[in-house]
Amino acid sequence: MSTPVQRGGGSRASADRLARLLNLVPYLLARPGIEIAEAAADLGVSDRQLREDLELLWVCGLPGYGPGDLIDMAFDGDRVTITYDAGIDRPLRLTPDEALALVVALRMLAETPGMANRDAIDRALAKIEHAAGDLADAPVAVEMSGGSDQVEALRGAVQRQRALRITYYTAARDETTERVIDPVRMLMVDGKAYVEAWCRQAEAMRLFRVDRIDALLELEEPAVTPPQARLHDLSAGLFQPAPDLTLVTLRVGRAGRWITEYYSCERVERTEGEEWLVSLRVSDLDWARRFVLGLGPDATVVSPAELAVQVRDQAAAALDAYAVPT
Q: Which residues pair with residue 276 across a beta bridge?
């Protein structure tokens, strides 16, 4: 069904109208020739609102949007009868799979650290679980990435406003460092849990991925965020590469596709074969060289040429070393 966007009235009004339209056709199908005033009273809207809904239904239907594709109806004075339903012949109902998917998604949302409007989430979850019946009791476990114990420890530090000493692996530099951070909030981005904190080592706000925190210790001192600290704007996504970083493009085979899930990629292009073209920005070509060599035959450097030469030379030197008799 294709429905034009309603302008004005706010998102809540638009959502209410969409729900009403989805159920209006099966309602009218079950009551051919019903008076508009009676239908409006049943649906809890005014006569004028119902007539506007009926006018909107006339331009809704199936792709093609021709006379035989759009919802059609006949009027006899103040009575209306649906003559073509475009397949919307029953009220909207969730399938078991859809209901279970919603239950799991809402449970995950409820477990997201620092999530606002928790009461609204709990109310929505209760309604879906009630509608799903026995299906809501399916043995589905929802667990945050990074380990539930670690997430709980970080969440507790945020709530208690305590500083943390962490051991953190930085993938971009392929190094592990120890640093003291002042946590501000927990986030869930693309299915990964993060703690946003003031890093005393970098003297800036940083996002630390929870599954890359190897160890953490809550300190006795309070978390202190300086006045110049600003939270990250994630409206455009987590990965916002600086234009001055080097763009590396690799051709990876099936066994190397895992890098698109573990590293922030700027572009992933699926070719006709099994190989993918993957582009990511790096701050250090030495790290990129080690990274590509670690992928072995599953990766080929497309650009930059400088990186391709470094990888080729080190691979050749390694082969020469193996050729020397011991």
A: 252, 270
| Residue in the block written with tokens 């009235």 | 9
Give the pLDDT confidence of 94-142 residue by residue, as tens digits.
667 777 777 777 777 666 655 555 677 777 777 777 766 665 565 555 5
Average pLDDT rounded to a whole number, residues 250-269? 85
How many whole angstroms separate alpha carbon 150 and alpha carbon 209? 11
Any idea which residue has 């990629």 for tokens? 265
Q: Taking 50 as the threshold, does the pLDDT of residue 301 lie above it? A: yes
Gap between the Cα atoms of 4 and 57, Å rounded: 10
3-state secondary structure of 312: helix
The domain spans of the chain are 10-84, 96-137, 148-222, 246-323
The amino acid occupying position 263 is: Y
DSSP alpha helix (H) spans, 63-117: 96-111
CA atoms within 13 A on the CB side of 98: 5
Instruction: Determine contact, residues 56/14, Cβ cutoff 8 Å.
Output: no
Q: Are 217 and 224 in contact (CB under 8 A)?
A: no
Question: Which CATH architecture does the domain made up of 246-323 adopt?
Answer: 2-Layer Sandwich (3.30)
CA 238, 241, 247, 250: dihedral to nearest 10 degrees?
0
Q: Is the pLDDT of residue 7 over 80?
A: no
Residue type (1 letter), 249: T
pLDDT at 133: 64
325 token code pair? 């008799």
User: What is the DSSP code (8-state) at residue 272?
Assistant: S
Fold of 148-222: SH3 type barrels. (2.30.30)
Name the burial class of residue 14, with classes exposed (0-12), middle (13-18) and buried (19+) by CB atoms within 10 angstroms of its CB. middle
Prediction pTM value: 0.43
Q: Which of 3-12, 94-103, 217-226 has the lowest mean pLDDT?
A: 3-12
Let me know: does 91 contact 23? Beta carbons within 8 Å.
Answer: yes
Q: How far apart are CA 266 and CA 220, in angstroms?
A: 40
Structural fold of domain 10-84: Arc Repressor Mutant, subunit A (1.10.10)
